[in-house]
């Protein structure tokens, strides 16, 4: 079984034998897990750096670990951003959890025309975004990730149009996942294998509106069908990431046609 992952506050890679203090919620989490002194854990700083460490002192308020080894893990390429239309409240954190475990690099919440859920008011926006970021943080630990995907500010459809233009003009690839499309996902993945950045746009339960779809296509996005079944909004982003993995270098294999 792989070692459990916790978050540590360090910016530079620590040296072997160095002692690191863990405070607050992470110390309490280690204590709750009933991990004993002498056990090994992984500490990730959430920004690519990972430490293998041995527990020296365990207390709910403060944990001390001794560094055994440290490394910086490269991020997979292409870099994948998922634009996620706001799902219903009971599925929002599930969507973030699944995308994070599937390897998403950045998450952008989107207030689409057909969204049932709405983030209205500054307090609501701040609270909802914080919940998404917390879900990404916990899912990253569960998935043994070294990089916690950031959750961007809430975007409008006009913001997404601009993002598509910026992505494609820089040589990236953008796709709207659309259940009524006939263009296969695998053809898009073959083009994306040559890109440094990929942008997936996931619509709400009510679907991407015709006006939004036309605007996104005009901005440079393709529209593709992910598979033979219609997926819930909360699952589509993770499914696209998993489908893209073996078709590009993200999962360490040889890319498909085009490279």
TrEMBL record:
GO molecular function, one term: rRNA (uridine-N3-)-methyltransferase activity
GO biological process terms on file: rRNA base methylation
CDD domains (UniProt xref): RsmE-like
Main location: cytoplasm
Entry annotated with the keyword Acetylation: no
Swiss-Prot/TrEMBL catalytic activity: uridine(1498) in 16S rRNA + S-adenosyl-L-methionine = N(3)-methyluridine(1498) in 16S rRNA + S-adenosyl-L-homocysteine + H(+)
Record-level GO cellular component terms: cytoplasm
InterPro entries with a match to the protein in the record: Alpha/beta_knot_MTases (IPR029028), PUA-like_sf (IPR015947), RsmE (IPR006700), RsmE_MTase_dom (IPR046886), RsmE_PUA-like (IPR046887), tRNA_m1G_MTases_N (IPR029026)
Domain Ribosomal RNA small subunit methyltransferase E PUA-like span(s) in chain numbering: 24-67
Keyword Transcription applies: no
E.C. code: 2.1.1.193
Alphabetized UniProt keyword annotations: Cytoplasm, Methyltransferase, rRNA processing, S-adenosyl-L-methionine, Transferase
Limits of the Ribosomal RNA small subunit methyltransferase E methyltransferase domain: 77-244
Subcellular localization: Cytoplasm
NCBIfam families in the record: PRK11713.2-3, RsmE family RNA methyltransferase
Entry function: Specifically methylates the N3 position of the uracil ring of uridine 1498 (m3U1498) in 16S rRNA. Acts on the fully assembled 30S ribosomal subunit.
Family stated for the protein in its record: Belongs to the RNA methyltransferase RsmE family.
Name of this chain's protein: Ribosomal RNA small subunit methyltransferase E
The species this protein was found in: Corynebacterium amycolatum
């Amino acid at each position: 079984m792989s070692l459990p992952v916790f978050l540590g506050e360090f910016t530079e890679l620590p040296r072997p034998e160095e002692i690191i203090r863990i405070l607050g919620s992470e110390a309490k989490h280690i204590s709750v897990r009933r991990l004993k002194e002498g056990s090994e854990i992984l500490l990730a700083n959430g920004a690519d750096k990972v430490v293998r460490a041995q527990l020296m002192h365990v207390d709910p308020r403060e944990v001390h670990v001794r560094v055994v080894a440290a490394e910086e893990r490269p991020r997979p390429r292409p870099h994948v951003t998922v634009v996620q239309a706001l799902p219903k409240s009971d599925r929002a954190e599930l969507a973030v959890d699944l995308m994070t475990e599937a390897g998403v690099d950045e998450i952008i919440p989107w207030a689409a025309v057909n969204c049932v859920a709405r983030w209205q008011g500054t307090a609501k926006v701040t609270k909802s975004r914080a919940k998404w970021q917390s879900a990404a943080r916990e899912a990253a630990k569960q998935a043994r990730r070294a990089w916690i995907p950031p959750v961007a500010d809430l975007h409008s459809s006009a913001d997404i149009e601009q993002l598509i233009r910026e992505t494609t003009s820089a040589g990236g690839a953008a796709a709207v996942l659309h259940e009524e499309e006939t263009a296969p996902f695998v053809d898009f993945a073959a083009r994306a294998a040559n890109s440094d950045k990929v942008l997936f746009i996931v619509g709400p339960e009510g679907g991407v509106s015709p006006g939004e779809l036309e605007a996104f296509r005009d901005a440079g996005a393709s529209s593709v069908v992910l598979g033979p079944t219609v997926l819930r909004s909360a699952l589509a982003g993770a499914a696209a990431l998993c489908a893209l993995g073996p078709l590009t270098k993200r999962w360490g294999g040889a890319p498909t046609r085009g490279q």
